[in-house]
Specification:
- This protein is an alpha/beta fold and 510 residues long.
- It contains 19 helices and 12 strands.
- The chain has a 7-stranded mixed β-sheet, sandwiched between helices.
- The longest helix is centred in the middle third of the chain and has 18 residues.
- It starts with 10 loop residues before the first strand and ends in a 13-residue tail after the last helix.
Length: 510
Amino acid sequence: MSMPADRQPGKIVTFYSYKGGTGRTMALANIAWILASNGRRVLVVDWDLEAPGLHRYFHPFLVDPELAGSTGVMDMVWDYALATLDTQGDPSPGWHEPYADVLNHTVSLRGFEPGGVLSLLPAGRQDDAYGAKVNSFDWSSFYDKRGGGAFVEAMKQSMAAQFDYVLIDSRTGLSDTAGICTVQLPDILVTCFTFSTQSIAGTAAVVESVRRQRGERDITIWPVPMRVEDGETAKLEASRDLARIHLDHLLKDLDENARDRYWGAVEVPYKTLYAYEETLATVGDRPNQQGTILAASEQLTGYLTDQAIVRQVPLDESERRQLARQFQRQPFAADFLISYCLVDSAWAEWLTWQLEAAGYRVLISTMDIVPGTNWIEALERAVSSSRRIVAIVSQAFVRSQFARVEWQAALRSDPNRATRKIIPVRVEDVPLPDFLSGIFGFDLWGLEEDSARNVLLNGIVAATGGATGGRAKPVTRPRFPSLGKPEPGAGRTAQDRHPRLPFPSKPRDE
C-alpha cells in the first residue's frame, strides 16, 4: 500500500496486559477518541481474537453493533491463508497486498472536526462460525509455511499508510497472537497492569521478552498502572514501590523528577461507575476534572504523542450528556414486539390484545409507530427494546422482505438463540424458513378462539419461562385424564377437531 509523499507513516501502538481485567480495552478506546477529537485519523484494531470486545465501547456508533455481518482480522488471515493454497493464483511478488488492505474491512465510527476520523477493524464476523475459525487457525503453519510474516508486515504497512495512529488491543498472556501484537507490529507498547504481585511480575517478564525478540529494532514501552484503588494507603504505596523496582528502567529517557511526574500522571483510578457497562470516559467524565479516568487518559495521550496532544477537544455539554445516555444499558420497554405482514393485521391486533390482557407489554407497528417515522430506525429501536419478537407466520409473511429484515435484526441481537428472542406463531399451515427451523413456536391455525387463547398463553410461558424461572408451567388448569379412554378427537388433525372459524378475520382466498 503506497503512502502519499507528503505524510509520515502513522504510529502503531499496542495495548497489552499480562492479566485480564486491567481496563486495557477501555484505555485504548478513550485515547483513540482523544486523538480523533484533535483531528487525527485513528484506527482501532481488535486483535484480542479469543475474546473480542473493543466494539462494545463504540456500540452507539455502529450500524451493526453485534458485528454479525462485519468482517475483520480473522477473515483477513483466513482469506490470505486459503489464497496461498491456490496453485493457479497470481505469482507476482505483491499478489498478497490486496488481502492485507485493512480498508476492505474497517468500519467507520465517527468523524470529528477538523478532519478527525475514528475507524474500527473488528476481530472478525461474530457469527456461529467465528469460534471455530479462531480455534482451528494454525498460526505456526501460517508463519512457517504460508508466508504469514510478510502478510502481517503488509497489514502493518497498510494501516500506517492510511492512519495517523493505529491502536491495537492485544490478547492477554502469552500466545502467538499476543506475540504478533507486542513484537512485530508496534512502534510503541503500552503495558497495562494492576498492582497485584502477579500482574507486576508477569508484565516485567513479558517486557524483557519483547525487548530480546526485537533486538536492534528499538521500541518505546510505557508501563501504566490501572484500576488503582486508594482504600489501603500502606499497601498501595508498597505496590507502587514494587512496580517501580521492576519497571522504572523502561523510562530511560526521563530523568528522576520526570519519572516521578510520569508515574503520578498516568495512574488510572478505579471508578465503580465504569464496572457495569462499556462506557467511554471521554463521554462519561466531565472535562478538566482531576482524579478521573479521562484525566489519566489525557496524560497518557501526551506521552504517546510527545506532548503534541494533551487534551480531548471537549464535546458540547448537551451533546456529551446525550451520548452518555446512549451508552447506558436500557431496560426493555416491552416484553414482545409483534412482527407481521399488513394482511395479517387482524391477527396481530388480536394477539396484542390477548397478551396485554395477560399483563405483558407489547409493541405493534399499527399502534406504536406513528406516520412519518423512519421505518428502519423505528424497527431497530423496537427490536432492541423488546425482550422477544412474536413472528406471525403466514404465506405472505414468509414471502415478505420486511419480515426478513425483522428476523435478521432479532437474530443479530441473539445469534445463539440462547434467550429465545424469536417466537414463531403460525396462523396458516405453512413451513418455517430454514433459518427459523428449530426455534420453539406453536400453531394457532384451525383453532377456535378459546383454544387459540390457551395455546397462545401456554406457548408464551413455555417459550419464555414466564415468572417460573424457566419452568414452562401451563397458565390454565390441565384436563383430568380419563382412565382407559382416548382423548376426544385423537387421530384427527387440529383442523378436523377445530374447524377454521372467522376469527380474528375470515380466511383469505389463496
